[in-house]
Design goal:
Blueprint (H helix, E strand, L loop, with lengths): L3 H9 L12 E9 L8 E9 L2 E6 L8 E5 L3 E5 L1 E6 L8 H6 L2 H17 L2 E6 L5 H8 L7 E4 L3 E3 L23 H4 L3 E3 L2 H15 L4 E4 L18 H13 L4 E7 H10 L3 E7 L2 H10 L2 E4 L17 H23 L4 E3 L7 H4 L2 H6 L7 H16 L23 E5 L12 H4 E6 L2 E5 L3
Parallel strand pairs: 1-4, 1-5, 6-7, 7-8, 9-10, 11-12, 12-13, 13-14, 14-15
Antiparallel strand pairs: 1-2, 2-3, 5-16, 16-17, 17-18
Helix pairs in contact: 6-7, 7-8, 8-9
């Protein structure tokens, strides 16, 4: 299927058409390397990529015959960026299009967003809710350009939960109710009780989920549930964990509050997504149990998902409450050594998606530039690897070392001393490589 790139992608994008250039051998010469793990750069080395892996890193000369040779002087070579909480299908679509258009519209826009993600330097994303399986396969087969995707499939919600989009006039539901539009498109599914939860988790795994996403607490964008609500009983959450564990993978949950997080941890959940409203004792619990906290820099600033103008009062109020807790949550997580992942949960906003790198750079309010970049490369990949044998990309990633996947950015300058470089990928990411293929090269 890699042969399809030249025909299909060239029609769609001139940048993606460059993907054929890197098949075989690519040699980066005279480059400084941020390896994803250590703060000190590996200075003035040569890095050889063969097929889709990094085969050699050395200060000695490397035979360049048959290779695409790239002079990396005054550049930093680093791993591709990652996002641990993304929704490729809906990140740039307004809700009116998601629920009002034919599903084909959503899938078409998602193809464009997948390429845009890659062109922003994000070579891997963990997709936490959406019918992304077909797009993932098309990317993996080389039909269209895009990042590696760790898919969850439909987000799983209780009745009245964060994933239940019915109006109040649609309840009570009949025993054999028809599926709602969100469910029919594969964005989410409502399941109540142990048997239903088991069934829906197993269906997601059958479709190809690498991990399972469950709504364990109230949300911002939803209108039916308060932000402080804990969702699902302990037995229901355990059912999801047991079904995922039987396939040797894990459950992550949407949860903001201490009550919701503690219930999820008791059930055996291995990752909490959000968590901006948890207290210090709950933070200590996450550290003690080794549970990941996949958090987003939700702030009431230029990147606020629900700015005052045009936002429903309910959503605006819930967002402000979460935004107020963001700073303290990051501070507590760092204080107690919680394993923190970086994600954005960008929703319904094309312009916000363009500021992907800026949102990562904001973490320097709580972490050093090195810690930020390590989180978005090496650390996130450790979270993704919790999917065990369900990991669709089982090789080493998120690092620049011999034997690792060749998911590589060549940055004009040093992002460890000037992290603002990652906010402008168009100018500063001179080469973007994924799986050994060059998708962008503005050095030539």
């Amino acid at each position: 299927m890699k042969l399809a790139i030249g025909l299909v992608v060239a029609l769609a994008s001139s940048s993606a058409a460059l993907a054929q250039e890197a098949v075989g051998r690519v040699l980066f010469e005279n480059v400084d390397v941020f390896d994803g793990m250590n703060e000190a750069l590996i200075e003035d080395v040569n890095v050889l990529v063969e097929d889709n892996v990094i085969s050699q890193i050395t200060s000695a000369d490397i035979e360049s015959r048959g290779a695409v040779v790239i002079d990396g002087s005054d550049h930093t070579l680093m791993p591709g960026l990652t996002d641990a909480h993304y929704h490729v299908m809906t990140a740039t679509l307004p809700a009116s299009k998601i629920f009002g258009e034919h599903p084909g519209y959503m899938h078409t826009v998602a193809v464009l967003e997948a390429e845009a993600l890659l062109m922003r330097g994000f070579t891997t994303v963990r997709d936490l809710g959406g019918p992304v399986f077909g797009l993932k396969s098309a990317i993996d087969d080389g039909v269209v350009p895009g990042p590696r995707i760790y898919p969850s499939g439909p987000l799983i919600s209780q009745t009245s939960g964060h994933g239940d989009v019915r109006t109040r006039m649609q309840v009570p539901a009949e025993a054999n109710r028809i599926l709602e539009p969100l469910e029919r498109t594969g964005l989410g599914i409502v399941a109540d009780g142990r048997p239903a939860v088991l069934q829906r988790v197993r269906e997601a795994l059958m479709q190809g989920a690498s991990q399972i996403k469950v709504m364990a607490g109230g949300g911002i964008s939803s209108s039916n549930d308060p932000i402080d609500a804990s969702q699902y009983t302990l037995d229901e959450l355990k059912a999801a964990v047991e079904a995922a564990a039987s396939w040797n993978t894990y459950v992550t949950v949407h949860a903001y509050t201490s009550d919701a997080v503690r219930l999820a941890v008791e059930a055996g959940v291995q990752c909490i997504d959000h968590g901006q409203l948890i207290d210090e004792e709950t933070i200590k619990l996450l550290a003690e149990k080794g549970v990941w906290l996949s958090m987003q820099p939700f702030l009431d600033d230029e990147d606020a998902m629900f700015p005052a103008e045009g936002s429903p009062n309910l959503q605006r109020g819930k967002f402000l409450r979460v935004a107020e807790g963001t700073k303290r949550a990051y501070e507590l997580a760092r204080k107690h050594g919680v394993k923190v992942a970086f994600g954005t949960d960008i929703a319904y906003d094309t312009e916000l998606a363009k500021r992907h790198g800026y949102q990562l750079a904001k973490l320097t309010q709580w972490y050093s530039p090195f810690e930020v970049l390590k989180m978005a490369t090496h650390d996130n990949q450790q979270l993704f690897a919790l999917s065990g044998p369900r990991n669709p990309y089982p090789g080493k990633n998120g690092v620049i070392e011999e034997g690792a996947y060749a998911d590589i950015l060549l940055v004009a300058g040093n992002p460890l001393t000037d992290i603002s470089l990652i906010g402008n990928p168009e100018d500063n990411f001179t080469i973007i490589m994924k799986d050994g293929h060059i998708y962008k090269n503005i050095l030539e």
